[in-house]
Amino acid sequence: MTERPDQSPITSPRSERVRTVAALAGRSARRKLSRFRIEGPQAVRSLLRDRPDLALELFVTARAAADHPELADLAGAASVPVHEVEDRILRAMVRESGDGGEAPDGAGALVSPQGVLAVGTLPAPDPSLALTAVRDLPSLQPVMVLVLHEVRDPGNVGTLIRTADAAGADLVVLTRTSADPYGPKAVRASVGSLFHLPVLTGADGSEMLAALADADITAAATSGYAQAELFTADLPERIAWILGNEARGLDRATLDAAPLSVRIPLAGRAESLNVHTAATVCLFESLRRRQAGA
Amino acid sequence: MTERPDQSPITSPRSERVRTVAALAGRSARRKLSRFRIEGPQAVRSLLRDRPDLALELFVTARAAADHPELADLAGAASVPVHEVEDRILRAMVRESGDGGEAPDGAGALVSPQGVLAVGTLPAPDPSLALTAVRDLPSLQPVMVLVLHEVRDPGNVGTLIRTADAAGADLVVLTRTSADPYGPKAVRASVGSLFHLPVLTGADGSEMLAALADADITAAATSGYAQAELFTADLPERIAWILGNEARGLDRATLDAAPLSVRIPLAGRAESLNVHTAATVCLFESLRRRQAGA
């Protein structure tokens, strides 16, 4: 992929440009090329409207261009080139790459791009940027952060970003061992929320805890062994909910380092909640308190 | 599959018995044979402990039998025959069937059975049984029901059952156009909760609404256009949360027929919640109120 998007028409599904876009299903190709791709009118609209600075180029079929004229308008306003391509070209762009690289980390190969695809600049996973984002949060007012530590499933990561957005979170931070939110499956699950609020990747877990404490934001973990129960606990207005790995939960060190730990009540016979359910209950309890206090 | 489980050892992954178990990944084979299958020690333990009446036979590797001795004990207590098989036999049982039938409705083919598999009797999808289950709920005390109407994704159905269990729901009802909770992907996502509380399938939507009203249980829908907001609405102690299709939500007729409709507050810029997130917020708000009132 050249620095300046190539303006020549794409006519072969086996062309280098098509294969380069297809390869972006893989995390290593995204990192190497500093690019990600997204598919479908809703995600592309969110990118162009909310993060035009990240958008590099758009590929649309004639049909989709007619159905979604606002996409060309948004692209024009952001000076993002739009390439009209045949449907078979788009479908080849979301097919598994033939370069022998890693398998795509989502079901991108099975999903129709619905006539629209965009390529964007991948925000670098950078621990210092994540720390800066925490420091730059407004002081002396309610703040809600979601920290994902070792959350490995791309679908979970995308859905968690969507739920954090819905609950009014100000920031989502992923530690470096979490799934990439810019993978096809995570992007799809986030339904545009990836571009609605700052999502920082590559953070270091213990550095993040220190930065939160410096910013007077209380890191809150969930644990089945915690004394305090979520619905009756004293929840700070400046809070960072920290969720851990799907199978193992939070590691002991992080759990010990978090200044607050709460237990989500389980009334039935389920032994646990999955990470997304736990996050939903915590984030919306914070939202409920915020609304009740306002 | 014979009525009485065959006791002869299984030595070929291509045998009829293996292929019959493999075919249970498909909904039509489950219905035709009135059987379902589950995999992994946790699901099998829940089946044997909580619904031994449904269990028909167990297949385990020597390794898994040694690692999980409680499974043979539970099976013995329930008079469920245990067959020791080689790992390659078990793996063939979760492979896509070669009979040209429908594709499995889950990712069963990709997941290891972890050395344990059980076959059980499929509870028949029966609208009248679903109505009876509602009528049989205790009267004059708090009741929480989850109704899934046209929820089509097996993973969502399983996760919703798990979350309903965790929130203390008394019953889950699925209308006939919802995904089958006994499919491999739904069973896995339910993590045993499928056997913790009554899960009734095949219900008719409007009959169900009438039965709920007769039982003095308020059917509550969620809608972005509702006047009442979840966190401040008057929520009855006898409540049935009704969740709709992943893409379309609840159909207009069901929404109009539900006596209560609430809006889940969205604080950020997400346009909507997915069905599982919405159910989680509603079910746990009911649990919170119940605990606060107790």
Protein chains sharing the most extensive interface: A-B, 37 and 37 residues
Helix/strand class of chain A:
alpha/beta
Domains of chain A, number: 2
Tell me the CATH superfamily of the largest domain in chain A: SPOUT methyltransferase, trefoil knot domain
Oligomer state of the chains in this structure = homodimer
GO molecular function (chains A, B): methyltransferase activity
Family (chains A, B): Belongs to the class IV-like SAM-binding methyltransferase superfamily. RNA methyltransferase TrmH family.
Domain RNA 2-O ribose methyltransferase substrate binding (chains A, B): 37-117
Organism (chains A, B): Brachybacterium sacelli
Structural topology:
Two copies of one chain form a homodimer.
Chain A (H helix, E strand, L loop, with lengths): L15 H8 L3 H7 L1 E5 L1 H10 L4 E6 L1 H6 L1 H9 L4 E3 L2 H7 L22 E6 L5 H9 L7 E6 L5 H13 L4 E5 L8 H7 L8 E5 L1 H10 L3 E5 L5 E2 L8 E6 L8 H6 L2 E4 L11 H19 L1
Parallel strand pairs in A: 2-3, 5-6, 5-10, 6-7, 8-10, 8-11, 9-11
Antiparallel strand pairs in A: 1-4, 2-4
Protein described:
- The structure is a homodimer of 294-residue chains.
- Chain A has 294 residues and is an alpha/beta fold.
- Chain A is 38% helix and 18% strand.
- Chain A contains 12 helices and 11 strands.
- In chain A, strand 5, helix 8 (154-166) and strand 6 form a beta-alpha-beta unit.
- The longest helix of chain A is centred in the last third of the chain and has 19 residues, at 275-293.
- Chains A and B meet through helix 8 and helix 12 of A and helix 8 and helix 12 of B.
